[in-house]
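Need the bound structure for beta-D-galactopyranose, inputs here:
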Amino acid sequence: MNYWEDPGPGCGVLPPRAALRSDAPRLSLNGQWRFRLSPSVGATGFEEVDFDDSDWAWLPVPSSWPMHGHGSPAYTNQKYPFSVDPPYVPDENPTGDHRLVFELPSEWSGSTVLRFDGVDSCARVWLNGVELGVTRGSRLPAEFAVGGVLRPGRNVLAVRVHQWSSGSYLEDQDMWWLPGIFRDVTLIARPVDADVFVHADYVDGAGVLMVESAPGAVVRIPSLDVVVPCGETVTIPGVEPWSAEVPRLYDAVVELPGERVELRIGFRTVEIVDGVLRVNGRRVLFHGVNRHEHDPVFGRAVPAERMREELLVMKRHNINAIRTSHYPPDTRLLELCDELGFWVMDECDYESHGFMLIDWKGNPADDPRFLDASLDRMRRTVERDKNHPSVVMWSLGNEAGVGSNLTAMAEWTRDRDPSRPLHYEGDLSCADVDVYSRMYASHAEVEAIGKRAEKPLEDPALDARRRSMPFVLCEYSHAGGNGPGGLPEYEALFDTYERCQGGFLWEWMEHGILRPDGSYGYGGDFGEELHDGTYVLDGLVFPDLTPQPVLAEVRKVYEPVRLSVAGDVLTITNRYAVLDTSHLSLHWEIADEGEVVARGPLTLPVVPPGRSATVQLPDLPPLQNRERWLTIRAVLTNNTPWAPAGHEIASTQSLLTTPTDAPAPRPGKQPIRQAEDLVLGSGRFDGRTGRLVGLGGWEVAHVPLELWRAPTQHDARTWDASTLDRKARWANAGLDRLQYRTVSVDAAGDELTVVTMVGAAATDARVLTTYTWRTDGGRLTADVEVEPLGEWKVPWARLGVTFGVPAGFHGLTWFGLGPGQAYPDSRSAARIGRYTSTIDDFQIPYLYPQENGARGDVRWAELFGTAGTLRLTGAPHFALTVRRWTTAELAAAEHPADLTPSDRVWITLDALQHGLGSPTSGAPILPPHDLQPRRHRFRFSLG
Ligand code: GAL
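Answer from helper R.:
Posting the output first, comments after.
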């Protein structure tokens, strides 16, 4: 059997141990290596010390080689990109040979290991021509003892990396296939068997410490005056506990023979009590994200600065938890999580999702040939990461079905580290785990689970066991493209049911890959014969870490302090587990029609976690006949390691007054016929169709009714294969190809009444649309009434009207929700105000173009530019999109660069919109955000 197809773990690799910072001499072998890529496995010989590699390419290590022009990235979600015949892989197995010549410093001494922190997917390693062994388990470290082979002076390291191996069957995560030595390579002069296992509990206000290590070793915590032999348990009074909210770490050292290990100890106890997961006695609410390791330029070799930046962006958006989907991350990430404060679910590098497509036949998770490899992966995960206080749960892996190997992994973990609960979502019986977890359960199902009233398992004992567990959503609210909606409703369930301890949004980052033309590629852009297209674009942040609009929604929904106003009283509810509110300050602001008229500070009482308090609001300036809003914000009083003083943590807005209704337009003018046209005030209408063709001096295009939008990624997918997605249903119903038939155009008195029948070919579903135009001499006002006729079998994407105006508008000011977009089911973060933007900045450049950028509840908007000023008002309020391309052009584009400005600006006023939802992954869109065809009336004015 070829070694890369051996289903066992690697060979020649040392037993796993903790990733430790120590003063042991280290030599980083990162840098430029010689590299040769072959399409399949060829002869060796390159490992010889005097092999001539001068005609090989140079490649940085760490790296994912396809990101450097060798081969191509390839994306599949569940499908294995090779025939499913475990443990075998095709002959076409891209193989990268790597060589590095390095000098060992003359002072180097001691027993030495060669450590690889991550190689995808299988590596065979030689030092100075001597084979050290083979490693699999891409996102896991491997150490080789090199004492006998390392030479003073010149050394030659040779590594052969195969893209495919038996390990690939256990690494079928939904992400790019990116082979390479993608994490650090280091020589470390440390004893091969030295390890440290910190047990640091927090019990009854004291730290309870026991450090396992070499006999005779001593642990010191200078700031606590603790000096204790390893192996002994000591109780330390007065210790501050570690939590994601207050990540208190104590610097410690362990003196081992030949090395001094530096630790950062966090005291904390994770327990499940009465069916609730508690840390240090407090119920934890996971406001989490699933985080893959991805960089748009470097692939899986993520620079350390970027990891920190990712975590800072998360902290600034009230995210407090990370599931390391679906493999252990770079260990530096966990160090940062300890330091900055995150609850981490650390997941083993283990997924065999592609077997689902063949009914789980031959699943390696249930194949004894893969038992040792399965255990090896779990051991390497736990041993590497066991000292991180941030890790509060182990996860056996993701979507690997059920099987005896998973049970064995669970048993080993429970035995090795009973201090952390076990998680695995793939086995609904939860037989091996401590936490009930689901992905993409609907709101209704989560509610049932919250009541411990979920559908029972067949086995009553297992059912009772599962029913007594805490519940988390290891994935929820898929963020593919524009969306998801429905977050506040999930949050309300987490607040209502103690058992529902939050979840982890899918997912943190879009995995776009930067291409030479500056655009981001997704599945299918790299010549893959099998791929899953845009499904790899499903993050809360763009690949460059710029937040997508939904991240503002996340921040608002996850706010750890809730503010609400009733009358002249503000209520503050502290949702933190540990922190009181003393780190926050309150500010209020009054704005009349978006213009700030008064502001000031407000005293915030110290509210303990889990409690509420009220504050009397100050006297406000006298009311005007204008729409008045009060905004209150809770901000950080002082700088923190992750955000400056003044950073907003929570906010609320409340309406204080609405102006008395504007009088209906007083008839100023009557429609008059001019040649083929009808003229009403500033408006010119086509005399035959009744459509607006001119306004003031501008040529206008007018679409009397729109029911379609450029489908979002969620519109274009469905979870349930037996139903069509919305995009297809809308296309079948012809919403994207409506036809318009003028029924009547009547100029009578001071009104112009235009009746249009709107419908699509091959269906009787129609909408009778009646416009009644009037003018007071200045504004042109339309009262619009729509009435669905015939049989409608699909919801509408929107109910709107569109105008094309000259391209000479470049910006707009609006009074309504902003500054970001707002859709019916994703609008928590938007606040009523007066905002200004350019038309270009009004767009959200989703990597796959789709409906985007609608501002909600707009009262009025003014477009401006060389063309002049155009004012739009609506009653009731409308949603507004303004674009330099049509909806059809937006829908046809595959990348943002396909969108080129036309000779018009297209304005759509939506009286109603369909929500965004998150149906890509199961949860149905909540009514009333599902826009069912209905009678509706609305009014808007132009002028
Ligand atoms: C889950 C899976 C994730 C990702 C997600 C996308 O089934 O665990 O890795 O594929 O679906 O919706």
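Comments: The pocket of beta-D-galactopyranose is lined by residues 77, 173-174, 326, 398-399, 439, 475, 478, 506, 921 (CB under 6 Å). The two ends are 79 Å apart (CA to CA).
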